[in-house]
Structures are given as structure tokens and as C-alpha cells.
């Protein structure tokens, strides 16, 4: 397990993700940092979409809408800042980045809900149910036109997309990530221990941050929301994706250093840690090397 170290993290972030270390202009407003819309949350899984939405908010974007397929959720979300509604209404609106699939059941109804969004969105993050619909060829993606398209499969979802097995994916994770990025002309984050990030243009990075505390329900939803958030803020695509994966992992290290993990770490604790880390990076970015 990598221990959290503030100085090492600061140096790494400044070298690889300078954009996330920039202070905010004093005259900024919420429109400056973009809008994320999350669509997901079928019956029994509304928490997944709400976690993604909350992570987007704590990740620093200006506004977050969340469309739940099962609406209203059985337990009202705690974050009053989220603009929550039913999935049909939210999917008819507009957003800078769409995060699709967290907690979404793979039904025909869900496919019909997501298809028009996929056709018109400039930027898409596909996770969980959206990936499974893609694997079933129930979700068409346009050949061209999207500024950015990100797929965030765990090995099970990657195996479904590749019509392969989890073992085959795990034996060659770099191949699996590259193959998916080329087939779908997308950025791919193949999740799990040491997530692999690949793009159709040849970008490849293996993320080393994180610990087994992330092996808990909902941590992937948090990652999807965070990627959407950094993209909506206009951070360069390569940095937004790789920095999200890195920050997500460092947040788990930071929580473990406070004995809030790895055992019993809750996905819902990650967003606050991510916020602390990002603000810390910004406030110490100018320190002498
Ligand atoms: N609070 C909530 O509402 C939650 C809802 N969730 C939603 O539940 C739905 C189902 O997702 P699941 O991922 O649980 O189920 P899946 O059936 O999609 O995937 C689980 C299987 O994937 C494989 N797998 C996953 N990660 C692996 C790894 N690192 N190494 C090897 N194999 C791995 C394993 O075979 C595992 O049994 C999704 O829509 C998801 O968003 C989950 O995110 C948990 C929290
Ligand atoms: N042992 C581990 N070490 C590092 N990261 C991990 C580990 N286990 C899981 N993760 C990370 O946690 C997240 C789990 O996502 P996912 O499998 O989609 O879970 P869920 O569907 O419950 O949200 C991914 O970002 C993955 O990379």
C-alpha cells in the first residue's frame, strides 16, 4: 500500500497535471466551471448516480444535474446543491459533459433514454450500465463528432465489451485497454489495481496511486463523476482523465493515512478527500521545488 505523502503528491501533480493545480480567477462564476449531467440510478441503485453527481460537485464543476431512472429515490439525497429530477427530464436538457450509466439497469428503456444523449453530447463518460448496453450493441455511438468520449470499465465490463473473460482481460490489461480505445475511438480507463488509461491516439499510462480501500461499492461511480467534473472545467482532456484516476487513488491513500481505510473506507468519503487534495495542490503549487 502506498502511503500518502504531501510533498511527493505535489511534485507528481505539478509534473503531470499542472492544470488541476491552477488557482481560480477571482472574477469566476459558476458558469466558468461547466455543467455535468449524470444519468443513471435505476431501482435499487439510485445511490450510484448520486455518488457520481456528488463527486462531480466536490471535484469543482459549477453545476451538477442528476437524472434518476427511479425517481424520486427512496432516500432523498443529502446534497441539496444537486439538481435532481427524473432521468427523462434531465436527459432532455443540456450539459457540457454527460456521465451515463452509474447504477443504470440494462433495459430497453434505459437504452432508449441514453441513445439520443449519446448522439448529441459533446463529451461523454460511459460507466456501468451504459457500458453493458454498449456491449449488447444496444447503445449506438456516433462515428465522429464527439469532442471527448471516455469509457470506464472494470475488468468484468471490459470482458463483456471484448466478448472475452475477466481472466483474459486481467492477463493483458494494457492490450484490453488499447483494444477498447481503438474499437470505440475513446479514452479508456480499465479500472482495478493499477488502472490502465489508454486513448485511440496512443496515450498510455498505468496509474499507481490507490489502495484496496477502493475495492468498495460505489468507488467507480465516484471516479466517473470526477472525470466528468474535471472535463467540464475545461482541463485538458489527457490531464482531466489521468488526474481523476490519480486523485481518486491518492484520496484513498489520504484516508488510509487517517485510519479511515483501507478497511471500511466508504466511497462517499472520497469526494471530500478529493476536494481537500485539490485545494492543497493549488495552495502549495508555487512552493519552491
Ligand atoms: N449504491 C449503489 O447504488 C451502487 C450501485 N452500483 C451499481 O451496480 C451496478 C452493477 O455493478 P457491479 O460492478 O457490481 O456488477 P457487475 O456484474 O457489472 O460486475 C461485477 C463483476 O465484475 C468483475 N470485476 C469487477 N471488478 C473486477 C476487478 N477489479 N478484478 C476482477 N474482476 C472484476 C467480477 O467478475 C465481478 O463479479 C452498476 O450499475 C453500478 O453502478 C455499484 O456501483 C455499487 C454501489
Ligand atoms: N485493489 C485496488 N487498488 C486500487 N484501486 C482499486 C482497487 N480495487 C478497486 N479499485 C478502484 O476502485 C474503483 C472500483 O470501481 P468499480 O469496480 O466500478 O466499483 P463500483 O461499481 O462499486 O463503483 C475503480 O476506480 C478501481 O480502479
Automatic annotation (TrEMBL):
Cofactor: Mg(2+)
One GO MF term: NAD(P)HX epimerase activity
Superkingdom of source: Bacteria
Function: Catalyzes the dehydration of the S-form of NAD(P)HX at the expense of ADP, which is converted to AMP. Together with NAD(P)HX epimerase, which catalyzes the epimerization of the S- and R-forms, the enzyme allows the repair of both epimers of NAD(P)HX, a damaged form of NAD(P)H that is a result of enzymatic or heat-dependent hydration.
Oligomeric form and interacting partners: Homotetramer.
Pfam families hit by this protein: Carb_kinase (PF01256)
Protein name: ADP-dependent (S)-NAD(P)H-hydrate dehydratase
Gene giving rise to this polypeptide: nnrD
EC number: 4.2.1.136
Segments forming domain YjeF C-terminal: 13-281
Listed InterPro entries: Carbohydrate_kinase_pred_CS (IPR017953), CARKD (IPR000631), Ribokinase-like (IPR029056)
Similarity field: Belongs to the NnrD/CARKD family.
Residues engaged in binding (6S)-NADPHX: 48, 103, 154, 221
Binding site for AMP: 191-195, 220
Catalytic activity: (6S)-NADPHX + ADP = AMP + phosphate + NADPH + H(+); (6S)-NADHX + ADP = AMP + phosphate + NADH + H(+)
Alphabetic keyword roster: ATP-binding, Lyase, NAD, NADP, Nucleotide-binding
An example Gene Ontology biological process: nicotinamide nucleotide metabolic process
Organism of provenance: Conchiformibius steedae
